[in-house]
């Protein structure tokens, strides 16, 4: 058994925070987590960015999962403030790094495979807000390292998986090659492994793509879970491929292509107890 890291987890009640905490409860080597919520939640530290730093022991890292996903322009702009608050918390708790949960949405409609040096042209408010968060924390004068995890689609925590758990018909765009939209997914258990691998590094900062090494067809995911999946002709301008280049990630933790298989993604999402 290696060193057991300690982390302060901001946004511990969100989908990803709940999944990670559920996975790590079953792992004796998992980080010691101090969960922090902006709401009053039993068993968690309640803290808002404008309040005094909470009374916590020093930690090895801060995990910044909190985010505003929907709202007005002013509300979405709060994502940058949340990122900076995570850095200030790390300074106060003696943590040398913050792992910020960013998003592949910062790339927008760029064609891939998309590397960390690819142009960033977000096309939705969430992607715009996450890019602003990235730029704010990188410009902040501090010795704390900010690792910007540009995460792909997390199984069990994104729109397709949300649709699968409903009783509504599942309709997937069909493109001229007869296939559906292809996206780079990551299973919750593999995301947990990646976070643990990043905690062990002391030489990284800036963006890093987080996803399985190959993309997955969304139709294949839907079909692996439900039989009643229907095609719809993809509208003009629909983007078939959003594929992340995970070369940099492979130097931290090399994932097998099996991690992109629909059955693996579904099984991991189910095993968290947070989906369906």
Question: How would you describe the overall organization of this protein?
Answer:
The protein has 276 residues and is an alpha/beta fold. It has one domain (6-271): NAD(P)-binding Rossmann-like Domain (Rossmann fold). It contains nine helices and 14 strands. The strands form four sheets. Strands 3-2-1-4-5-6-11 form a seven-stranded parallel beta sheet, sandwiched between helices. Strand 1, helix 1 (15-24) and strand 2 (32-37) form a beta-alpha-beta unit. The protein is globular, with a radius of gyration of 18 Å. The mean pLDDT is 96.
Descriptive keywords:
276 residues, 3-stranded mixed beta sheet
Our measurement of the CA-to-CA distance between the termini, rounded to an integer number of angstroms, reads 33 Å
Q: How many β-strands, per DSSP?
A: 14
Assembly type of the shown chains?
single chain
Within the largest sheet, what's the order of strands? 3-2-1-4-5-6-11
CATH topology: Rossmann fold
Element pattern in H and E? EHEEEHHEHEEHEEEHEEHEEHH
Q: Measured on Cα atoms, how large is the radius of gyration?
A: 18 Å
Provide the CATH top-level class: Alpha Beta
Short description:
The chain is of the alpha/beta class. It has helices spanning 15-24, 73-76, 78-92, 125-139, 159-164, 188-199, 218-225, 247-250, 262-271; strands at residues 6-10, 32-37, 45-46, 61-64, 97-103, 145-151, 153-154, 170-174, 182-183, 185-186, 206-210, 216-217, 229-233, 241-242. It has one domain: NAD(P)-binding Rossmann-like Domain (Rossmann fold, 3-Layer(aba) Sandwich), CATH 3.40.50.720.
């Amino acid at each position: 058994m290696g060193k057991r890291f300690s982390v302060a987890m901001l946004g511990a009640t969100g989908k990803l925070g709940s999944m990670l905490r559920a996975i790590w409860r079953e792992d004796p080597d998992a980080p010691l987590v101090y969960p922090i919520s902006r709401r009053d939640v039993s068993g968690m530290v309640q803290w808002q960015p404008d309040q005094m730093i909470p009374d916590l022991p020093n930690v090895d890292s801060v995990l910044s999962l909190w985010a505003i996903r929907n709202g007005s322009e002013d509300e979405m702009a709060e994502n940058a403030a949340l990122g900076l608050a995570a850095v200030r918390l790390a300074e106060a708790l003696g943590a040398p790094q913050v792992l910020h949960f960013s998003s592949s949405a910062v790339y927008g409609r760029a064609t891939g495979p998309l590397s960390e040096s690819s142009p960033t042209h977000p096309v939705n408010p969430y992607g715009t807000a996450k890019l602003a968060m990235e730029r704010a924390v990188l410009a902040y004068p501090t010795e704390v390292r900010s690792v910007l995890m540009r995460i792909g689609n997390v199984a069990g925590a994104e729109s397709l998986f949300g649709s699968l758990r409903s009783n509504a018909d599942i309709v997937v765009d069909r493109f001229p090659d007869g296939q559906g939209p292809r996206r780079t997914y990551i299973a919750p258990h593999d995301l947990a492994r990646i976070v643990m691998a990043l905690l062990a590094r002391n030489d990284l900062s800036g963006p890093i793509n987080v996803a399985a090494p190959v993309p997955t067809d969304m139709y294949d995911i839907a079909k692996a879970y439900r039989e009643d999946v229907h095609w719809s002709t993809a509208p003009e301008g629909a983007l078939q491929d959003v594929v992340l280049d995970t070369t940099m990630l492979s130097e931290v933790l090399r994932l097998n292509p099996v991690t992109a298989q629909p059955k693996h993604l579904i099984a991991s999402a189910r095993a968290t107890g947070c989906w369906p």
